[in-house]
Amino acid sequence: MINVLSPVWSRALRLSAMLLVLAGVLSGASNVFPKDSGPTELLHDIREERVSSVHVIYLSPSEVQVRWTTGYLGEKAYLHRFSSLPEARSSSDAYVDILRQRLGTHAGAVDFDMRDPLAGLGGVSLVVPVLYWRFIAVAWLKWATLAVLAVCVVAMVGRRRTRAPSPGHWLSASLLLGSGFLAHLWSEPFSLRRAPAKNGDLPPRMGGWGVALRSLTWLVVTGLVAAAVLTLR
């Protein structure tokens, strides 16, 4: 499909896809590394109707983690430690009761969830980083990002002419690094920095090392952007 698009439309669609994937990366990173907050900010966000659900996660008989989101890149969290063990109750149930008492009439405006939204983090997610999309908090962005990644896979396999030696190089880079998707969108079927020649000449080819180098470069760039955005949010 991308092969039959004009260079202008190809550039626009690929750049839009890259921005969407980067937005998904930032959302996933924000969920994995929430902003350090506290109970005062939680109560304020609930009273201002910025929160619909609060995760109160059991960590130990005397400790819970509280997580919530106020929107895109708005993930926040804090730890609460009881000075003494709650009597005959789990720490998460006991802390939910405390929050309801503090909220008063606003307690019914929010749902309390005992599940950990990051319960699936680790294992295969660490080996195949592209699975980060499961931790994107905004639902529409989660599925839009997955759709873009799926279209990229189809393009990798279905494109007749590639700058890379074979589609397998892009697939390997994408599944192992995740940033291979960004490198592919930037590089195929021609670099976004350089328009294809008007005489029909093929764009410069790249070796397998070129695929790896571009993927690693995008991995570093994405990490630096995520670190900067999460620090400044």
How would you write the strand order of the largest sheet? Answer: 1-4-3-2-5
Query: Over all CA atoms, what is the radius of gyration?
Result: 22 Å
Largest sheet: 5 strands, mixed
Overall helicity: 40-55%
Number of helices: 8
Structural overview:
- With 233 residues, this protein is of the alpha/beta class.
- It has eight helices and five strands; from the N terminus they run H-E-H-E-E-E-H-E-H-H-H-H-H.
- The protein has a five-stranded mixed sheet with strand order 1-4-3-2-5.
- A hairpin with a 2-residue loop joins strand 2 and strand 3.
- Helix 1 runs antiparallel to helix 7 (180-187), helix 6 (167-177) packs parallel to helix 8 and helix 7 (180-187) crosses helix 8.
- The two termini are 38 Å apart.
- The mean pLDDT is 89.
Characteristics of this structure?
233 residues, 5 strands, elongated, 8 helices, alpha/beta, 5-stranded mixed beta sheet
Concise structural overview:
A 5-stranded mixed beta sheet has the order 1-4-3-2-5. By secondary structure, the chain is α/β, with parallel strands linked by helices. The protein is 50% helix and 12% strand.
